[in-house]
Amino acid sequence: MGGFVAAVSLRVALAGHTRWGVAIATLVAVYFITSFSIRAYDQDNLQNPRYAASQGAKALLLSVCAVILLAFVFQASEDFPRAVMALGALTGTILIVSARYAFVRNMTSIIGGNPFTVMLLRDGQAPVPDGDFSQVVETGDRFDPDLHDPIMYDRLARLVASADRVVVACPPERRIAWASALKGTGVQSEIFVPELSKLAPLGISSCANTPTMIVTVGPLGLFDRFLKRLFDIAVSGLALFLLAPVLGIIAVAVKVTSPGPILFRQVRIGWGNEMFHILKFRSMYVEGSDGAGNRSASRDDDRITKVGRFIRMTSMDELPQIINVLKGDMSIVGPRPHALGSRAAEKLFWEVDGRYWHRHSVKPGLTGLAQVRGFRGATVIEDDLRNRLQADLEYLEHWSIWRDLRIVLQTFQVLLHRNAY
């Protein structure tokens, strides 16, 4: 805000515009109205430095747009050069983002403690949440929410009046009573429900006026899914056109060097945990093929043909999956799909880590973050699976189309990998 005022004030001094003083005063007023309307100064929004900075920038840019609109409505836009407005907005945004980020990040040391008072009310021996509470109060008999007693309500109101936030830890059967008692205090109040930690809810919604907990919304929105699908079609279509001669040569080599079909089909776990048939060039003798994937390929696996060893080492056995991508079963980039019988240290993958199923919230990919990090080959120990899973979950959390492009480019560097056999 100060940067905008400074830039504009300099321009006013040089050009002598008389209406800039009114414009600046209007902007300051609109900025504070906007800031409070988008809750830029609420305690929840002042806990995260990045979010606090983004809210400040949002409030300033909305305010500048509002002032420009007012200038246009009152036919005063010619008095406000665009270059000055742009300079002020840019300078102000940089300064307000920097200032809010630095302040929130160092708020505790600047103020000399937590500026927000968080009070914990403990009813009985109920488990309590972790956290740094300003005050912990054992409710005992003095604060009994089951008693509809004006004196008790007055006592409770005086207790929590100085708090910015109240958290209640109580037995399950008393949660409704505490919720009712606290709703009239005018203080942000919360009931600690330890069971929720296992559900990891994202928020609250409703179904037919009945509250429900949101446990997942999927990592990609509608536009992101459209963008990713467009990327898949473009890349796989181009790859199929350019690699057609290579695909033909491999198909002939597979056919003439060992009896059996050219393609190997296997059931894999796909998007939304639905199963699909993945396509690969057959790299093993027919009698040694493992449709369920109970046995992972090893370095000296006698089931692999001579041609199969070469195409597995160069990852060319995976090329038919371009067709899976075009069909919509797979994506160019995503967690690699696994066979139902895949194991790590004699355990099925989902027995090693229950989060395994979470990786299927996007389409499986021809390549993925785990692969470019070198996590491929046989899963001999449980950590082999955990490393891949961690990379897959990281990919879901930080997805972007640019990251997909980077992973595709990085894939070319790891095609000839020591664990590819």
Automatic annotation (TrEMBL):
Swiss-Prot/TrEMBL GO biological process terms: polysaccharide biosynthetic process
Keyword set, alphabetical order: Exopolysaccharide synthesis, Membrane, Transferase, Transmembrane, Transmembrane helix
Signal sequence bounds: none
InterPro entries associated with the record: Bact_transf
GO terms, molecular function: phosphotransferase activity, for other substituted phosphate groups
Transmembrane segments: 20-38, 59-77, 83-103, 230-254
Domain Bacterial sugar transferase: residue ranges: 228-416
PANTHER family from the UniProt entry: COLANIC BIOSYNTHESIS UDP-GLUCOSE LIPID CARRIER TRANSFERASE (PTHR30576), UNDECAPRENYL-PHOSPHATE N-ACETYLGALACTOSAMINYL 1-PHOSPHATE TRANSFERASE-RELATED (PTHR30576:SF0)
The family this protein is said to belong to: Belongs to the bacterial sugar transferase family.
Name of the protein in question: Sugar transferase
UniProt source species: Sphingomonas yabuuchiae
